[in-house]
């Protein structure tokens, strides 16, 4: 049987700072031939090195599934992404600037390519099928080593040429400025999982196994750990309240490694948000539901939209 374009599988590539996840995704959303490989790092040709690896993965999957040729591909990457122009504007970790991903990928893969931001694509899946689907004004925050976000207003993604959603670099009060001083830092330096572990180590002199280790020490009565965790909650709450004031955000979905803390994060965060806000509506704070493959599925949905499927 020959499948129509809308029913054909698509290639999906989720390019991260450490790994690339790849797969062939059928029309039901099933990921076939899942691959996870190291992201190539080439300072001289960072974008080209990634696309060369994707071309190799395409060949592997075509050999494994010869009866199901892909008709389109979705590629998502971190950093600043202009999805309309198909350009990776900037990636601090992977090194490209203004690289024409869509055009160069289509040359190498030989099929239409949808190119977009990793968090925005994962957030679109979370927003469409996860806990925030009933809301129109939503922020999806991925809180891990750093902090990235996607913003939805009136049910539509706000992209601003790739510059929307950089909440990790939003200014927050600096908890290290001292009681009689004022100052600011960025949210990522206080509220990310990576920052929680680093700030605890710096303050206590004790190494710790990530943010979860800090939380466990705080729960056991470690005053330094409790303060570092509270600082992170304060910074996240500050930024969430800014979103509520500026955009009228109804719901905030929190994913990434820090979300694994569940209610131990969300409950104090809800209380802090409630204490900061005045007359404004209180946003629903929701843990992300779709897990580590949301980006891969988001890239597949982007590709399927090129074939006339729904996004």
Explain what the structure shows:
This protein has 311 residues and is an alpha/beta fold. The chain contains nine helices and 15 strands. Helix 5 crosses helix 6 and helix 5 runs antiparallel to helix 7. The chain is globular, with a radius of gyration of 20 Å. The two termini are 25 Å apart. 46% of the residues are buried. The mean pLDDT is 91.
Indicate the low-confidence ranges by residue numbers. Answer: none
How far the N terminus sits from the C terminus, by CA atoms, comes to 25 Å
Report the structural category: alpha/beta
Number of strands: 15
Instruction: List the strand order in the largest sheet.
Output: 3-2-1-4-8
The major β-sheet equals: 5 strands, mixed
Instruction: Give me the number of helical elements.
Output: 9
Strand content: 15-25%
Element string (H = helix, E = strand): EEEHEEEEHEHEEEEEHHHHEHEH
Please estimate the helix content.
25-40%
Mean pLDDT level: 91
């Amino acid at each position: 049987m020959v499948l129509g374009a809308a029913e054909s599988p698509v290639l999906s590539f989720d390019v991260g700072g450490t790994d690339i996840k790849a797969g062939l995704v059928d029309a039901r959303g099933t990921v076939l031939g899942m691959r996870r490989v190291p992201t190539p790092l080439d300072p001289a040709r960072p974008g080209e090195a990634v696309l060369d690896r994707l071309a190799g993965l395409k060949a592997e999957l075509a050999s494994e599934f010869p009866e199901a040729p892909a008709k389109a591909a979705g590629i998502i990457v971190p950093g600043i992404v202009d999805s309309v122009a198909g350009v990776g504007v900037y990636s601090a970790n992977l090194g490209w600037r203004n690289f024409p991903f869509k055009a160069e990928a289509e040359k190498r893969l030989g099929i239409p390519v949808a190119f977009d931001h990793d968090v925005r694509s994962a957030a679109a899946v979370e927003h469409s099928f996860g806990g925030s689907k009933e809301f129109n004004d939503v922020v999806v925050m991925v809180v891990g080593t750093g902090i990235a976000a996607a913003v939805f207003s009136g049910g539509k993604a706000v992209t601003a040429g790739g510059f929307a959603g950089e909440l990790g670099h939003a200014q927050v009060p600096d908890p290290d400025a001292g009681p009689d001083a004022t100052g600011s830092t960025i949210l990522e330096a206080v509220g990310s999982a990576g920052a929680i572990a680093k700030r605890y180590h710096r303050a206590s002199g004790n190494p710790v196994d990530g943010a979860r280790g800090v939380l466990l020490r705080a729960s056991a009565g470690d005053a330094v750990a409790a303060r570092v965790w509270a600082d992170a909650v304060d910074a996240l709450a500050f930024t969430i309240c800014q979103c509520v004031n500026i955009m009228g955000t109804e719901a905030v979905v929190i994913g990434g490694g820090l979300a694994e803390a569940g209610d131990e994060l969300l409950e104090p965060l809800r209380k802090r948000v409630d204490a900061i806000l005045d007359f404004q509506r209180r946003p629903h704070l929701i843990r992300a539901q779709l897990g580590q493959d949301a980006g891969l599925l988001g890239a597949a949905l982007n590709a399927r939209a090129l074939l006339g499927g729904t996004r």
